[in-house]
Design goal:
There is one protein chain. With 288 residues, the chain is of the alpha/beta class. It has two domains: 226 residues, Rossmann fold (3-Layer(aba) Sandwich), CATH 3.40.50; 54 residues. An eight-stranded mixed β-sheet has the order 1-2-4-3-5-6-9-10, sandwiched between helices. Helix 1 packs across helix 8 and helix 4 packs antiparallel against helix 5. It is globular, with a radius of gyration of 18 Å.
């Protein structure tokens, strides 16, 4: 990785996070000097999709930080024996701690005008964090392929299987096994503890992306793949389709900060459409 370095930061609750920082050879005149970007659920900062994004954006004069959340990989070390790490244990509510630590890292490197974004679950966390925290140094938001954490909507999409999985998680918690590991296969293939599954898809819809988007006060560009949001298609990811449909309804309804792009023929991982994704991200940053 040219013009890059592995970096670390420490959160307020003593969780150590790693990332890859891509430095431009020359700076451009964009109003955004750095993009802080978070991986998807169960992923990590060194996924090739994010590494190549960093290489491309740094070539265009923008510092790029591909950053771990405490929920990187499925189960991982946080460096703090009191805090369990990995996506299986992560709560979206932890996101302001992680994102805040990385923002402070970038500020220490001289960046005052920062965009934050993420892919999949990272997009959910970036949206939730800016909605609830409103970091003043964050000037733009770029959520890529977030899912809609909406209990009734997911129940409608996945029916009895989701309802049974949710009830099973409640059963484990009630019987003193909150860290029981589950792989229900829906709303997507992942591993959760009973506690984290209930937290993600709680009946109070605490992390519903489309609702948190309405609280964002800065320019926000949602990006989705065409194939992941095509109903009934072989690459469909229903929660992403639900998020796209709901957010599209809000655009133009007294929410001028919101916009949305769809990458033609792209699936959730943007396989073969990486350049189109990077160009869409870069174009939005230049427009700020």
């Amino acid at each position: 990785m040219l013009n890059s370095e592995i970096v670390h930061t420490l959160t307020r609750d003593d969780v150590t996070l790693a990332g890859a920082l891509f430095l431009p050879k020359t700076k451009t005149s964009t109003n955004i000097s750095a993009l802080l970007f978070f991986h998807g659920d169960g992923g990590n900062f060194y996924n090739p999709l994010y590494i190549r994004m960093g290489e491309m954006l740094s070539e265009h004069g923008i510092t790029f930080l591909s950053a771990n959340r405490r929920g990187h990989d499925t189960i991982s070390s946080t460096g703090n024996p009191e805090v369990k790490g990995g996506y299986a244990f992560e709560s979206v509510s932890h996101s302001p701690l992680d994102i805040g630590a990385w923002i402070n890292f970038l500020k220490a490197r001289g960046h005052q005008d920062i965009a934050i974004g993420g892919h999949s679950g990272g997009a959910v966390r970036a949206t939730y964090t800016q909605s609830t925290t409103h970091f003043e140094n964050v000037k733009a938001l770029i959520p890529v392929s977030p899912g809609e954490y909406y209990h009734a909507g997911i129940a409608k999409l996945h029916g009895k299987k989701f309802e049974e999985s949710f009830s099973l998680a409640e059963f484990h918690i009630a019987n003193g096994n909150p860290d029981h590991l589950m792989q229900p296969g829906i709303p997507w293939g992942s591993t959760w503890t009973a506690t984290s599954f209930i937290d993600c898809f709680n009946r109070d819809d605490r992390y519903q992306v489309s609702q948190h988007a309405l609280e964002i006060q800065i320019p926000t560009r949602f990006i989705f793949g065409e194939l992941e949001t095509t109903i009934g298609g072989p690459e469909e990811l229903p929660v992403c389709g639900l998020a796209r449909q709901t957010i599209e309804k809000h655009i133009g309804e007294n929410h001028p900060q919101l916009s949305l792009s769809v990458i033609e023929s792209a699936n959730h991982g943007y396989a073969g459409k990486e350049l189109s994704l990077y160009e869409t991200v870069h174009s939005f940053i230049k427009s700020i």
